[in-house]
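Issue 218. Parser rejects a valid record. Input:
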Amino acid sequence: MPTHLIYIGDEKMMIVRRGELSRLFKPRVPNGSELNKIQSSKDAIRELVKPVLKYAIFSHRWLREGEPTLQDIHHGRECGKDGFQKLSKFCEKARELGYQLAWSDTCCIDKTNNTELDEAIRAMFKWYRNADICIVHLADSLDSQQMKNDVWFTRGWTLQELLASLSIKFFRKDWKPLCHTDLPNDKHNVQLMKEISTITSISVQDLQNFSPGPTQIRKKMKWASKRMTTRVEDAAYSLIGIFDVSMPIAYGEGEWAFHRLMEVIIQRCDEWDMFAWAGPSSSHSAAIPRSPRCYCPFDASRFPEERKDEQNREVHGDNKFMLTRQGLQIKLAVVNGELQRQHDRTFRFIVPAKFTTASFAPVAVQASRLIDKYREFALGIINYERGQHRDKEAGVLYPQKDYLCFLLGRTAEGKELQKVNTSNVLTVRTTFAGWGSFEPLVVLWL
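Output the parser choked on:
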């Protein structure tokens, strides 16, 4: 349960603490059929507590100013008219739907208490998941046709609220229901879910039955890449529940928050496609993107098909990469080549025949002027197939396939290859014929 809730059992709004709920809602003696279902404390909570303490939760776009705080509601202080009116309409709709408890992120978190704020951010996904209904206010829409331009679909925190809520009800700008159906849960409205899927690029299956966890990293980051947050740190904090990870909250740390999030994810995930990003890297590691916006679209249609080995592990890429004090430790199939400057200020990476027995198509590279500090270049192929060649580990590449890769560079004075930031996700296509090619694997620290 959230730390604070709004009691709306009568016409007034009253902030109540989690520990005060037993005073408002007296426990009752279970009947015989309920007793038969109760075999544990979890059963008791499900059968006796949750139906009584069910609550409606609010999802909305914050105003620039004037949102009522916990202290405003608790002490009856006047606050911004628009913010208070929005909260009152939410409570009114929750009451009409039969709820006596409600929760809003504006006034149900004591933001002056760092411990409570930390708990709220880390538990937010669960609070939305456990809510009986999520009431969404689309402040820019009067019908479903206008949804695609509603700011609610561009905010970072509302992504979590959309995915976490199992039951949801959308209301228009004028607080009338968005859909004129008898369905109590708009997630069961297939047509509406298809429209929201088009807007968000999230599948209907994920919209209706999203499961959090440190998997499918790139897909989830692509969802977040289209979202904005007012505070830099919230680009990371709003994803904690989606990836089901835990990390301390520290407003003021700036972009370091997203770096820490990626560190936690890398420790729990072995998916190579999380490295399919482009743009600025973290100031602390070239292998970690600076923000979700780095997860831009690219064509992966000619990648080798996913395949599992006898241990049910994906056969492509290094599945034992890890973060160390020297950086990301990862095995790559390194292919040396030359970087040629083009007339349009882009570059082309080519692999001359003298460098490898395999042949590759040229790779278009978009990079900044900082690339001039490097004297030697190579491609680090990420999603090779793990194999053995002459009793040594090798990366297997197949003909006429595309492979994800990093651009690697070595400075005049440097001994180690470094990851070079590029503005586009790099893929290289094999052009040879025959069965395949074995490429040596190199352990790098990026």
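Fixed in the parser; the record now loads. The chain is about 25% helix and 25% strand.
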